[in-house]
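Hi team,

As requested, here is the filled-out complex form for the C6P run. I kept the field names the same as last time so the parser does not choke. Let me know if anything looks off before we queue the next batch.

— J.
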Amino acid sequence: MHPNPITEAPSSTFDVLRAREDFPAIHQEVHGKPLVYLDSAATSLKPRAVIDAVVEVYAKDCANIHRAVHLLSQRATFRYEEARKKVQAFLNAEKKSEIIFTRGTTEAINLVAQSFGESALREGDEVLVTELEHHSNIVPWQMLCQRTGAKLVVVPMTDRGEVLRESFEEKLSDRTKIVALTHVSNALGTVLPVPELIALAHERGAVVLLDGAQAVSHVEVDVRALDCDFYAFSGHKLYGPTGIGVLYGKERLLEGMPPYQGGGDMIRSVTFEETIYNDLPYKFEAGTPNIAGAIGLGAAVDYYCSFDRESVHAHESQVLRYATDALESLPGVRLIGTAPGKVATLSFLMDAAHPHDIGTIVDAEGVAIRTGHHCAQPVMEHFGIAATARASLGMYNTTDDIDALVRALEKVRELFG
Ligand code: C6P
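And here is what came back:
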């Protein structure tokens, strides 16, 4: 059992072998080999506590929320709203009403682009993104620019995969109304210097959204210390269920934004003449939400916070250093993305084989990695490549996993020469 995060301080040493016991999916064989899971940037494995929480909702507290007086509905509503409080505390948001449940990061960004973006942007205004963004933090803004006549401006990255303050300042202007930045790059693992970029954007009066999909499980996130205006993340990359995510927004901004979708629960009253919208956060949660997903996300936050997060991050950094050294010493391997301070992700190429062939051969050895453009085609374009192989870490990975990856890559070299 892990300590209760509310009543007990987590231990300052991270016992990875003990943590591994919490993740049932790790303990299986694929293709007759023990699974080595190195694809947590795509989705993390789920601990038993999260699986149990979701099962319990369907087995016991199976009811719709905010709608009925019967006990099951009251229990489900209570647990859903408790999950919101857990996320509030996790992000250090000032108010529970600033936490909106969405389907994931993608929906959270689309919500801001459509609701805030359409009311805030005029022709000639600018939306600033970086070359490092995931498609989810490009396409919604492109669509918004098409609708409003605003312009999408891109801050370039360096060949190491960094975003420099000077390049950012150069692209920022008095016409910049929205700055949408990834906190951590999914393709390269770069951690952007978001505190200083947010401060610069605010000096110009722009509103800042951070895409935290890859950040929440690898770096400390405090939305008040960062002073970001919006923060988006997905539950499934934080050891939680798929189909649930979060949009944090400053109350002042959320209050002024029109609803994103219309339907049940987002209204206070409806007549054919007029609809009065509900208060925050319900104004942005139309229809029956992913109740079990939100409760499962609450369990994931509890689970993750039951560890001393600094020691989890230190463990991941140590495994990443080990992996970087190991891959750098393999002949014919080239790392893509070498920004100092990067986290959890290693993109690489091999002279011998195409990334998809690498992925297929290492899979036969039991090693799960992702190959392709990682929904970050502009990053690939920067390096003049179509795809990379990507190994990405979760808290449960060990240096043994990296040794297994290296052995599998040696097989690739043997086969492709
Ligand atoms: N990246 C990856 O393998 P959703 O799909 O809404 O949960 O998250 C989208 C998303 C947005 N921003 C970043 C930085 C991301 O990494 C992702 C998801 C996965 O890298 C799947 S493409």
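Two things worth flagging: Residues 41-42, 104-106, 134, 136-137, 182, 186, 211, 213-214, 234, 370, 374-375 surround C6P (CB under 6 Å). DSSP finds 14 helices and 17 strands in the chain.

Thanks,
J.
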